[in-house]
Amino acid sequence: MKSQQIDAQKLVDIGYDPGHSRCGSFMVVDHAILEQVSRIEGLTVMPLAQAFEKFPHVKEKLYFSLVHRDQNEHTLMAAENEPVGYYIRVEEGVYIDDPLQAAFLFETAGTTQIIHNIIELCEGARLNIVNGCATAHSQSAGTHIGITEIYLGRNSSLGYTMIHNWGMGVDVYPVSAIEVGENASYLSHYVGMTSVKKITSDPVAYVRKGASARFYSIIFAKPGSFFDMGARAILQGEGAGGEIISRVVSDGGTVISRQMLSGEQADTIGHMECSGLLLDDKGSIHSIPELKGGHPDVNLSHEAAVGKISSEEINYLMTRGLSEEQARSLIIRGFLDIRIEGLPSSVQALMEEVIARSVEGSI
């Protein structure tokens, strides 16, 4: 069985950990679905192709609705193939505390993996998902295309954590869109701490009246890696809110951080910031903020900063008994530490573990 050939630590590193409490799970290796489990009444976890049969509205109204088939060459390719991925649904009023764990592993070198996921939360539902993507083996090379469409009903809440653990032979093209219903909340947390040949991502959230969308990203770009990462929040409803926060460290890699907030109705509030830390003169960080006001009663702001580790900070920590390597590691971990309101403590702890292991393995 393929899953038995995969290093168990590889799964743990992307949040797929049987030792942690979870409400359900879903695993794909290449295009084979190896696991689909729901442990909670009111939670549906099934392959998207099966959902087309059981829930006709999924194919008729949700599939390629937020993300369009002809959006780019990658969506066109996905539209021509049978969908592989999950359909996750939480029924009205169902609150779920334990996260759902999903893993998408790339194993066969030289191929293209195409994933299409749809998430639907009914009115008043709550869920947290930890999505992990990785190469099953460090030598793997190829292309990953991942399409995600998320529909949040009124007063619902979704926490969506994505952990990427690719390799230098992989090109990655996620395409995501989120419909955040009235008074609903969407919290996205992206962690990319390993090498990757190229990743391009620009998720967009359409935020209705009184709703909010928050995007947080933590990126550690190793030598030769290329990240072109973005997030857009379109504040379409009165009183909608958006936040986009990025923490970027370049240790020789290239990072482009794109952020866009659009306020289209009264009382919309949005803020974004990108903070970058350069460890190597071969790396680069390029922050591209964009604000668009479409109503006189909006409040949108941004800030950005890129710099290096202060020698004074390192010297101070070394006088306290730390080696230079330990001091640098501690400073970087502190820089990447984002305390996110609303993120479950179990998921926050997982993020801290992933970041600590990645930083310590790179210094």
Structure description:
The protein has 363 residues and is of the alpha/beta class. Helix content is 18%, strand content 47%. The protein has helices at residues 8-13, 48-54, 56-62, 73-79, 311-319, 324-336, 345-360, and strands at residues 24-29, 32-38, 43-47, 86-90, 100-106, 111-121, 126-135, 141-152, 157-165, 169-180, 185-192, 198-201, 204-207, 212-221, 226-235, 241-250, 254-263, 268-278, 284-293, 298-308. The strands form 2 sheets. It has a 10-stranded mixed β-sheet. Strands 3, 4, 6, 8, 10, 12, 13, 15, 17 and 19 form a 10-stranded mixed β-sheet that branches. The two termini are 36 Å apart.
How would you describe this structure in keywords?
363 residues; alpha/beta; 2 domains; 10-stranded mixed β-sheet; 20 strands; 18% helix
Strand order of the largest sheet: 2-1-5-7-9-11-14-16-18-20
- Share of residues in strands: over 45%
If you compute it from the alpha carbons, what radius of gyration comes out, rounded to the nearest whole angstrom? 20 Å
Nearest-integer average pLDDT = 90
N-to-C series of helices and strands: HEEEHHHEEEEEEEEEEEEEEEEEHHH
> What ranges have pLDDT less than 50 throughout 5 or more consecutive residues?
none
Structure annotation, total helices = 7
- Shape, per Cα inertia axes: globular
- What is the domain total for the residues? 2
Query: Largest sheet, if any?
Result: 10 strands, mixed
Distance between the termini: 36 Å
Structural class: alpha/beta
What is the total tally of β strands? 20
| Helix content class | 10-25%
